[in-house]
Amino acid sequence: MEYFERLPKEGEIIVKVSALNYEIKDKTVNYVSSNNDNDDDIFDIFIDDFPDPMYYNFTKKCKTIGRFCRIDEDKIEDIGADYCCGVIAMANVCGGYGFFDKTKNTEIYKAYKKLWSYADVKKVDGEYAMDQNKIGKAMQKYYKDKTGKTLPYEQKENPTTQFFIDAVDKKYSSILGVYSKREGGKSGHAVSVEGYFIFEPLNEIVYGEKQIFLSVATGWDSEQKYIWYDKVNLDSTYGVVFKLYK
What we know:
By secondary structure, the protein is an alpha+beta fold. The chain has 7 helices and 12 strands. Strands 3, 4, 7, 8, 9, 10, 11 and 12 form an 8-stranded antiparallel sheet that branches. It has a two-stranded antiparallel sheet with strand order 1-2. Strands 5-6 form a two-stranded antiparallel ribbon.
């Protein structure tokens, strides 16, 4: 990964410019990524590792909800279902809670298809998509079907990082949705949030304020990914917290 000497100042963001390289850009510029493989790909905001300065100039602490389920696109293909990121995010929350046996394909399939039907998934421009505003209700229907009880949840447009930190601190599962209309098209994605990482500067005057990353399951693969949520430039975001500790 390319090393850069400083962290972004107010009004700046970190953007991915190639597979392992990042640059500091003006936040006011409508810029998502200059990855030549896919110039309008919003998904480059989810990174595999932290920028180099975090390792040298900051101390790290992390916290997770302690429940991990990373059903991904390959698994959905294996069970013979169609891909929809919002449904995978919901399935990962449900699998984490233990609402179904995440080790058995038959159980994954049944849960996935129920969530799919409750979410009213539609085909848009050749891909399956759902209204993010239906995530909470779909999860509530699924939980009611499984337990006979009501699943409390809170949803918010353009939530702050603190919205997800508070959820993790209470061991609540949550889903983050991101949306962009830039680069001549539109893109959206939904992920389940597993935890957060806080980097405290060794010297705040020299290295600036603390930096926070959310750790997520993207649904593309089974690896942990991170989003520097405060530093990405998006048209809108969406958050749902499920107020169930288990």
